[in-house]
Design brief:
There is one protein chain. The protein is an all-alpha fold. 39% of the residues lie in helices and 0% in strands. The chain is built from 1 helix and no strands. It is elongated. It starts with 25 loop residues before the first helix and ends in an 11-residue tail after the last helix.
Length: 59
C-alpha cells in the first residue's frame, strides 16, 4: 500500500501564481451564457404548459 507523504512546507498555489488568467471578455461571456440558459428554461417551461411562446396570441 502506497503511503501519501505530505510536505508540510508546500503551499497550495494562490490565484496569482496559477498560470491561466481569465479572458478579458469573461463577464460578457458569462452574462451571455446565463441569458441563453434562462431563455431555454423559459421555453422548456412553456412547452410543459402546452403552448409555444412564439405563437402567443396578443389580446
Amino acid at each position: 500500500m502506497a503511503s501519501l507523504i505530505m510536505n508540510k512546507d508546500a503551499k497550495a498555489p494562490s490565484l496569482s501564481t496559477v498560470d491561466c488568467p481569465l479572458p478579458t471578455d469573461f463577464p460578457q461571456r458569462l452574462s451571455e451564457l446565463s441569458g441563453r440558459i434562462k431563455k431555454s428554461l423559459r421555453e422548456k417551461k412553456a412547452e410543459r404548459q402546452g403552448f409555444e411562446p412564439w405563437l402567443q396570441v396578443t389580446p
